[in-house]
Amino acid sequence: MARYLATSLSLFAILTACGGGGGTTAATYSVGGTVNGLAANAQVVLANGADKLTLNAAGAFTFSKSLTSGATFAVTVESQPAGQACSVTNGSGTVSSSNVTSVQVSCVTVYSTGGTVSGLSAGASVTLKRGAEQLSVSSNGNSTFSNAVSTGIRLKL
Predict the structure, then answer these.
(1) Which pLDDT tens digit goes with each residue over 43-55?
(2) What is the C-alpha to C-alpha distance for residues 65 and 74, in angstroms, rounded to an integer?
């Protein structure tokens, strides 16, 4: 009887240590959406916290890490594609009881702007304005604004 009791207690201890029987696993939901305007051969890197996703083409995307209902998400552009600027809409929120498919990433082609200044006298300068950005030029030669722009921007001298 003592041996039976010892064996029973050993089995009970083992079952208790492993956590017992089947609990329920919380449902998880994916976070994703659509990328528009990504140029051919371009690459954009998106982030949702530590979950990173590299995309090479426009279309639907889904992050690999699923989230439980009530978890928050915040999708950002981790790395812009060369020659383009991408922005995110509907990129943050709280996961409810379904997959998130409403994140929109829009990419546009951007251009550097500048020109060549000639005929500037020694010691003189000229300031170029593009929107709120200013570029001060104090010598003849090529000058380029720091920030690239999409179409529709006018230079003012």
Answers:
(1) 999 999 999 999 9
(2) 13
